[in-house]
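Hi team,

As requested, here is the filled-out complex form for the NAP run. I kept the field names the same as last time so the parser does not choke. Let me know if anything looks off before we queue the next batch.

— J.
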Amino acid sequence: MDVLVAGGSGFLGQHLCAELDDRGHDVTALSRDPDPAELPAGVETAMGDVTAYDSIAESFEGQDAVVNLVALSPLFVPKGGNEMHDRVHRGGTENCVRAAEEHDVDRFVQLSALGADPDGPTNYIRAKGQAEEIVRDSSLDWVMFRPSVVFGEGGEFVSFTKRLKKLFAPGLPLYPLPGGGTKTRFQPIWVGDLVPMIADAVGDDDHVGQTYDIGGPEVLTLRKITEMVYEAADKSVTIVGLPMGLAGIGLKTLSILPGFPMGGDQYRSLNFDNTTDDNDVGAFDVAPEEMTTLAAYLGVE
Ligand SMILES: NC(=O)c1ccc[n+]([C@@H]2O[C@H](COP(=O)([O-])OP(=O)(O)OC[C@H]3O[C@@H](n4cnc5c(N)ncnc54)[C@H](OP(=O)(O)O)[C@@H]3O)[C@@H](O)[C@H]2O)c1
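And here is what came back:
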């Protein structure tokens, strides 16, 4: 199959392009500035910005399937502010869906996120929810993935905890986490477990019209994840609880500083879990106990 991976130069994108290439597909990675050196030799690149329809339309010509992985990270305030999520996640999806429809692409695989909700509490969650509606309302054979946080080579989730420490307690032996890091739970999934599922959805008709909530094999608090990351680096960490209200006021105040990378959305996202009670990995013949845990990946088991 000819497969266009929008956002193919990113974290999931590089892994997916390699997987699709291994499976014998003709793959093109689309992003604003893809570097062929970061992709397998057989993968073509195309340059375009999903917020500008005319810059991407041509790359949809002749494709059998499109995977939309274009993203702005919700962990930090994107360049241009949190409102950029609407332009890129909702508006970008609208343009990709339109281009796919106008170029008779059969399959459209959309990467959404756990908790995506058109009326949700953050710009990212709302834009992701609205993007889901656009994909479901399209005439395409769509498949929707809603994963929890993804870890693996090239990902930012593991380094996120260290970056938080540098921001809030540089050089201090203490690590103040909002709510002691016990209020927010994640279900991290290894990129090597998720990517084959996405590749299956590209070629297998059984997944058309399905929405999959996808998580890893265990639920972990932010505190536990932070402790594991420090243990893996052979460093000690003393986590102290920062009352959630105080953390909210602190972040709101700091977010006024030019260039400070966190704000109200990032605080609000620490107030809800990123987990699923109905893990759909079974739809890909995967059992949670067969999946790679974060501890195993970090080598702290
Ligand atoms: N990673 C996770 O933990 C996680 C968890 C849940 C859901 N997801 C979802 O999974 C998908 C992939 O995430 P990821 O972690 O691989 O993201 P990523 O590493 O940030 O990659 C994003 C990709 O999108 C491209 N991009 C950004 N803005 C663009 C624009 N305006 N036009 C064209 N391309 C643009 C980037 O390349 P350029 O910047 O060079 O253009 C890059 O190739 C996203 O939908 C994300 O929301 C990820």
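Two things worth flagging: The longest strand covers residues 141-147. The chain is about 35% helix and 20% strand.

Thanks,
J.
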